[in-house]
Design brief:
single chain; mainly alpha; cell membrane; Rhopdopsin 7-helix transmembrane proteins; G protein-coupled receptor activity; transducer; globular; 319 residues; GPCR_Rhodpsn_7TM
Length: 319
């Protein structure tokens, strides 16, 4: 099965990869600094889950230059072949890690609001660590099919003859790959999507009965960003798994919708921003330290948090 591309499409791939790298890397690096600081001061389960999601995004971004080299070479793999399955494995693993960790965050948020008394009595940090380990295992175990496919049967075909990386497959390779892709679409996308949708719909309903307007607004932002990632970034790509299984071949448009999946590393920081007001405040403080100044909206947010926490309001910005 040969993957088809329209003339010059490799520059589209290169451009998207480059933009994702330039935007996603600084955003996730800032998120990493914030979450590490929060966990050092006051460890919270949801922050541990979001820290793992940040590490997953950074792993994708750090290996994205390999994809840039591939795209700049006309979608031919000119790097050592050992890097081909490794980059593919990490690329696809981080995509499904996002869906799993977003689901875990939605469950954590729902339980904290729906069952607050029970929630406070549970060892949430230890459970979050266990859940994180399970998420990494599930995603990496499923995506190890990259290695199985690349080294299946006549390895010289994949390594030398076609000159590509995980783009062209023989019939015997597809016989292994397509059922695994279908399972991944169900287990790692559809099931997490259903769970996430249920948790956030229930959360919105509960908060609509008496929460503050600011809190409702933050939850709605969190819901919108999460569903955007599921439906726009991951939906078309996982649909290609279903179509490929039904047709018995990889759809010709699969590589293009895969581009949408890389955008999640830029959208995940939006989820982080709406995850809590404390994250927003600490992000503003980090930006102030980096820029050596402050903005009116960051000062206003800091003031609101101090009033909420019954601290003495102070003027933080020089006039």
């Amino acid at each position: 099965m040969v993957q088809s591309f329209f003339p010059g499409s490799h520059w589209l791939f290169f451009t998207v990869y480059l933009l994702v790298f330039l935007v996603g890397l600084p955003l996730n690096m800032m998120a990493l600094v914030v979450f590490v600081g929060k966990l050092r001061r006051r460890p919270v389960a949801v922050d541990l889950l979001l820290l793992n999601l940040t590490l997953s995004d950074l792993l994708l971004l750090l290996f994205l230059p390999f994809r840039m080299v591939e795209a700049a070479s006309g979608m031919r793999w000119l790097l050592p072949f050992i890097l081909c399955p490794l980059s593919g494995f990490l690329f696809f693993t981080t995509i499904y890690l996002t869906s799993l960790f977003l689901t875990a965050v939605s469950i954590e948020r729902f339980l904290s609001v729906a069952y607050p008394l029970w929630y406070k009595t549970r060892p949430r940090l230890a459970q979050a660590g266990l859940v994180s380990g399970i998420c990494w295992f599930l995603a990496s175990a499923h995506c190890s099919v990259v290695y199985v496919t690349e080294y299946w049967g006549n390895v010289t075909y994949s390594q030398g003859t076609n000159g590509t990386c995980y783009l062209e497959f023989r019939e015997d390779q597809l016989a292994v790959l397509l059922p695994v892709r279908l399972e991944m679409a169900v287990v790692l996308f559809m099931v997490p999507l259903c769970i996430t949708s249920y948790c956030y719909s229930r959360l919105v309903w509960i908060l609509s009965r008496g929460a503050s307007r600011r809190r409702r607004k933050r939850v709605m932002g969190l819901l919108a960003a999460t569903l955007l990632i599921f439906f726009v970034c991951f939906g078309p790509y996982n649909m290609s798994h279903v179509v490929g299984y039904v047709r018995g071949e990889s759809p010709s448009w699969r590589s293009y919708v895969l581009l949408l999946s890389t955008l999640n590393s830029c959208l995940d920081p939006v989820v982080f921003y709406f995850s809590s007001s404390k994250f927003q405040a600490e992000l503003q403080e980090l930006l102030q330290r980096l820029t050596g100044g402050c903005t009116p909206w960051s000062q206003e947010l800091s003031l609101e948090l101090k009033v909420k926490n019954r601290e003495e309001p102070t003027k933080e910005c020089a006039s």
